[in-house]
Amino acid sequence: MEVIERPVAAAAAGDVVYAGFWRRFLALVLDQLLLGTVFYAMLFGLATIAALTGAFDALEGMDPDAPPAWLVVAYLGFSLLYLAAVGLYFSLMESSRHQATLGKLALGIKVVDEEGRRLGFGRALGRWAATALSYLTLYIGFVMAAFTRRKRALHDLVAGTLVVDRWAYTGQPERQRRELGGCLLAAVLALAGLVLVAVLGIVAAIAIPAYQDYVQRARISVVTAETATLRGVIADFQAREGRCPVNGEGGIREPGAPGVLHATRITVGEFDEGGCGFELELGGTGSRRLDGGLMWWELQPASGNWICSSDLPDSTLPLECRG
Pick from 211, 206, 199: which is nearest to 37 by CA? Predict the structure, then answer.
C-alpha cells in the first residue's frame, strides 16, 4: 500500500514559494538535455553498429520515397520505446521521495498536489500525459506558469498539481528561496550540453557516411589486388603474341568464373577504342551500392602501365580509379 505524506502544519499557504517560470523552464531544459543525450547516444550507437555490420547497405539504391518496411517499424518502435522511457522517467521521479526530476532537483523545486502532498505514481503519470496539452497549444500551456496565481502551467491545472520550492511543505519553510539562485549556472550547463549534443550529432552525420565509404573503398582495393595476377598475364601475352588475349587463352579463365574475390564476371579483350584490357563486374560485396558496378583496366602499351576507371561513385574508389 502506497504511503502518501501529509503536509507539515508549519508550511501554511502563505509560506509556500511557488516555482517561477524561469526555474521551471531551466529545469525542463536540463531534463530534455539529459533525455536527449541518452536518446542520441543510443541512436548513434545503433547507427554505428548498423554501419559496422553493413545494415545500411540494404538501403542503397532504393527509392528514398519508399523506405523499407523494417526501417519504418524500427523507427516507430524506437520512438515508442523512447516515449515510454520519458513517461517513466518523469512519473517515477516526481512520485519518488525526491518529488522531482533531476532537472527540478538541480533548480531546487519539486511537484506536489494541491494540498502539498507527494504524488502517487498514477497521478504523476497523468501529469506527464497532460503535458501533451501544453505542447499542442504551441507551448502556451507552459508559458501560463509565468502568469497564473500559483505559477501553474496548463498540465498542472489539469492534474491538480503545483510546482514549489523544495523546502515548501516541510518543517523548514524558512529555507525556501524566491531568487533564481543556481539558475544561471544551470543555464550555462544546459547551453554547454546543447552545444555538445549538436557537435556530436554533426560528427556522427559526417563520420558514419565516411566510414561506409572507407569500407567500400577497402573492398574495391581487395579487387584491385586480386586482379594483379590477371594483369600480368595479359601484359605478358600481348608482349609475346603481339595482340590482346581473350578469355580462355594464356591460362585466362572464362568470363563467368573469374576466380577473383568480389567479381562475378571478367571479360578480357580489346576495347572499342582499340586498347587491351578487361571489364570486371562486381558482386558478392555485401553492398547494394557496389554489386553490379563495373570496373575497367586498360593496358598502356608504351608505358606498360594500367589505367583504371569505373562507373561507381568516386567516394567508393581508390585514387587511381577515380575519374
Answer: 199
> Quick one: 214-321 is in which CATH superfamily?
Glycoprotein, Type 4 Pilin (3.30.700.10)
- Integer-rounded Cα Rg, in Å, for the chain is 33
pLDDT tens for 19-53 read 989 889 888 888 988 888 888 777 777 767 766 66
What does the DSSP 8-state code read for residue 18? Answer: B
End-to-end Cα distance, the chain: 74
Rounded distance between C-alpha atoms, residue 274 and residue 276, angstroms: 7
Domain ranges of the chain: 13-181, 214-321
d(CA 156, CA 1): 25
H-helix segments, 95-174? 102-107, 121-136, 140-143, 154-159
Helix (H, G, I), strand (E, B) or coil at 109: strand
- Does 138 score more than 70 pLDDT? yes
Give Cα separations from 24 to 46, 101, 111, 146, 152 (angstroms).
33, 11, 11, 10, 10
pLDDT tens digits, one per residue of 246-300: 999 988 999 888 888 889 999 999 988 778 999 999 998 878 888 899 999 999 8
Rounded distance between C-alpha atoms, residue 107 and residue 151, angstroms? 15
pTM of the model: 0.59
Side-chain-side CA neighbours of residue 218 (13 Å)? 8
